[in-house]
Amino acid sequence: MARIPFLVACAVTASMLSAANAQTWTYSATSPETLSCDAKDLLFASWSYGHYTINNDVWSPCSGIPAGEQTIWANSNLDWGVSSNQPDTNGIKSYPHIGYAVNKTISSLNSLSAVVSASTPSGGAWESTFDIWAGNKAHEIMVWLNYTGTPDGCGNVKPISANWTSAGCAIPLQTNVPLSGGTWNVYVGTNGSNAVYSFLRTTKTDHTTVDVLAFMKYLKSRNYFDDAVIGEIQYGFEITSSPGGLRFASRNFTVTAE
């Protein structure tokens, strides 16, 4: 589960702008290996571009889980990515992401959608996912588009769930729910701080337009919450392991709220 980032303004220096393959980005920031939670300016380095905020979000050291080196880079909300070298161990290490603040109730919106076009690696353990906060952060809605586990809650990444099989797989409360042009298995649980609702797309994809409002209305119709205020919509890559350094990128990401 992705944690709420401690946002820190990070000045762009010349060294930050040097990158692999001699590429130069408008913004980049690197969190070195084995940092402690005290180094929040690097772990949670962030950059604002218009209505969007891009965040490195290496939060595992603040939960006592060692993390590897990670570099986030961006030119705009339409062009950003991350190179991450996380150890092949248990526990989520980071959630490099882009965020957009909505701060409107479900009923006040006629539409709320986001365009996603990503490139993801074939190895490692990770999910390409939305993390949507609602009800003053009491509710966390995760929408998994692509991931290295399985839609039925097994594999090397699994959703938070209140129920598990004897084999250690999460048990969905609903299966094959039609929403936003796909079908989804739905898992519900808690991380100890807030309720978590995970939608796993049964057919994985890196390229789609997500009808965010449809997911919110679905949960509201099942009485998980009332006319909640949708806070921040985040999209990014929740990384458990990426040994050797794996690259993720996001193109053309836009949120439309009307």
Characteristic key phrases:
258 residues, Jelly Rolls, globular, 5% helix, disordered N terminus, six-stranded antiparallel β-sheet
- Strand % is over 45%
CATH topology: Jelly Rolls
Structural class: mainly beta
Outline, from the CA principal axes? Answer: globular
Task: Count every helix, treating DSSP H or I runs of 4 or more residues as helices.
Answer: 2
Task: Report how far apart the termini are.
Answer: 28 Å
- Percent helix among the residues? under 10%
Major β-sheet annotation = 10 strands, mixed
Give Rg in angstroms: 17 Å
CATH class: Mainly Beta
Mean pLDDT: 92
Sequence of strands across the biggest β-sheet: 1-3-4-7-15-9-10-13-12-11
Write down the domain tally. 1
Please name the fourth-level CATH homologous superfamily.
Glycoside hydrolase family 11/12, catalytic domain
Reading the helices and strands in chain order gives EEHEEEEEEEEEEEEHEE
Poorly predicted parts? 2-22
Give the strand tally.
16
CATH architecture: Sandwich
GO molecular function, one term: hydrolase activity
Pfam families: Glyco_hydro_12
Signal peptide: 1-22
Keywords: Carbohydrate metabolism, Glycosidase, Hydrolase, Polysaccharide degradation, Signal
